[in-house]
């Protein structure tokens, strides 16, 4: 078959404080899809309904990227630490997710993308946690920490190891076991001084469903272990068979 078409939901760079940096961040995700062998179809909130419908109708997979906080009203909570939710991005991600589920294509979520998968599946978020933020990317001042992978998880199978990997960390919201949707399972975790264990990777409990989220940023290769680069070809290969 032709190279898989991957819808990539992204922030609108013109709505960000630094559009140049925002466009650079967007490019890292698109490059990851290309390295994996896919054709990225970038969408942000400027896309018309017609453009969205056309992209959703032809997609072989969905990548939900990082970005701002999801509106806590979407998981039934008042704001308690969330920062500047982006309703237009929430709407785009929700529409793309619903289309991907309806088409039964693989879904990969990165950082915010992992969190919105949990919310769209019925879970909730810790709205603020300490110790996992970094200086604004692409600053080289990067917070890192180890993650522990579940040995029987799809993620461990993809990266080829269950040994602890040291990953970058760019988030102030998160998922804990008690906030995880019932349709999902934790595939990787990290310890947190106040909250115990944070979910750093998740996947569908249904083994036939290719649904993977990871809290760190594998597209930022300069601060990621080499093993995480395997996520891109694994995702694209799953999309090729969808």
Task: Write up this protein.
With about 240 residues, the chain is of the alpha/beta class. Helix content is about 30%, strand content about 20%. The protein has a single domain, classed as Class I glutamine amidotransferase (GATase) domain (Rossmann fold). It has helices at about 20-35, 50-60, 85-105, 110-120, 155-160, 230-240; strands spanning about 5-10, 40-45, 60-65, 105-110, 145-150, 165-170, 175, 185-190, 195-205, 210-215. It is globular.
Concise overview:
With 242 residues, this protein is an alpha/beta fold. The chain is 29% helix and 22% strand.
Key terms:
single chain; 242 residues; alpha/beta; Rossmann fold; globular
CATH topology: Rossmann fold
CATH homologous group name: Class I glutamine amidotransferase (GATase) domain
Number of structurally distinct domains: 1
Model regions low in confidence, pLDDT < 50 over at least 5 residues: none
- The H-and-E topology, N to C, reads as EHEHEHEHEHEEEEEH
Classify the helix fraction into a percent range: 25-40%
Shape from CA axes?
globular
How far is the N terminus from the C terminus?
Answer: 11 Å
Summing up helix and strand content along with how strands pair, one would put the structural category as alpha/beta
The average pLDDT score comes to: 91
Proportion of beta-strand residues:
15-25%
